[in-house]
């Protein structure tokens, strides 16, 4: 498997004879190429022949730019939400990476591929809602995401405490809203060993023996 000086591969033109390039413990037969944009790159012959390398990287940037221009939503809340979602899972410098990518949460390949795929699956962001993962330990993917209100998001946090009453499992916050009793009252009563029924229904000031 070899290539010749002057041979072209899409935007790349070979300008050197082949040589062995060592990267760590890996050894690959490579050549130096010049891209149509003027950039020079050392590229493995295998990548050139199998079509993996078509430019110095400028082609991919142009295609991405065309997709962004096509959907016309670069500065919208929907597009910003897609960017934030990816950053949380892949950017180690993001302030919330520890709670997402740091826990192994990933964005599915389809949504990583393009904003259009993401938008096609989830639709326009409804007013006052944000993207929620149904399984808080699961990935960002069509089967595990939905638009949710701030209250629904709060009820799905990993730090929530859930109580089961009459066969229904809800967070303390949800029981608080259902019965009109302060969240902290229910929390403290349960922490003291009260049953869920007593914690919810006993009047304020009640004491359990």
Folded structure, characterized:
This protein has 209 residues and is α+β, with helices and mostly antiparallel strands. The chain folds into 3 domains: 8-61, no CATH class; 72-155, no CATH class; 162-201, no CATH class. Helices cover 36% and strands 21% of the residues. It has helices at 45-49, 58-71, 77-90, 109-113, 115-122, 150-155, 172-179, 183-191, 196-201; strands at residues 8-9, 12-14, 19-23, 26-35, 40-44, 129-133, 145-149, 162-165, 168-171. The strands form 3 sheets. Strands 1, 2, 3, 4 and 5 form a 5-stranded antiparallel beta sheet that branches. It has a two-stranded antiparallel sheet with strand order 6-7. Strands 8-9 form a two-stranded antiparallel sheet. A hairpin with a 2-residue loop joins strand 8 (162-165) and strand 9. It starts with 7 loop residues before the first strand and ends in an 8-residue tail after the last helix.
In percent, how helical is the residue content? Answer: 25-40%
Low-confidence stretches: none
Mean pLDDT: 83
Tertiary shape: elongated
How big is the Rg?
A: 27 Å
Helix/strand class: alpha+beta
> How many discrete domains?
3
Q: Care to count the β-strands?
A: 9
Q: What is the count of helical runs?
A: 9
Distance between the termini: 85 Å
Q: How would a crystallographer describe the biggest sheet?
A: 5 strands, antiparallel
Strand content: 15-25%
Helix and strand succession?
A: EEEEEHHHHHEEHEEHHH
């Amino acid at each position: 498997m070899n290539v010749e000086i002057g041979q072209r591969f899409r935007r790349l033109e070979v300008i050197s004879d082949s040589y062995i390039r060592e990267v760590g413990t890996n050894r690959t037969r490579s050549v130096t190429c010049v891209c149509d944009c003027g950039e020079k790159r050392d590229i493995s012959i295998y990548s050139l022949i199998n079509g993996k390398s078509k430019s110095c990287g400028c082609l991919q940037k142009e295609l991405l730019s065309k997709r962004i221009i096509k959907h016309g939503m670069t500065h919208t809340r929907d597009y910003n939400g897609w960017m934030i979602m990816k950053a949380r899972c892949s950017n180690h410098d993001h302030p919330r990476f520890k709670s997402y990518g740091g826990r192994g949460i990933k964005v599915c390949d389809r949504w990583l591929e393009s904003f259009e795929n993401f938008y096609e699956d989830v639709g326009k962001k409804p007013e006052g809602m944000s993207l929620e993962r149904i399984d808080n330990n699961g990935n960002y993917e069509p089967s595990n995401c939905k638009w949710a209100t701030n209250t629904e998001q709060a009820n799905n946090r990993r730090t929530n405490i859930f109580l089961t009453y009459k066969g229904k499992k809800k967070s303390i916050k949800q029981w608080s809203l259902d019965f009109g009793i302060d969240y902290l009252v229910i929390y403290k009563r349960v922490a003291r060993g009260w049953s869920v029924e007593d914690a919810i229904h006993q009047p304020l000031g009640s004491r359990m023996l």
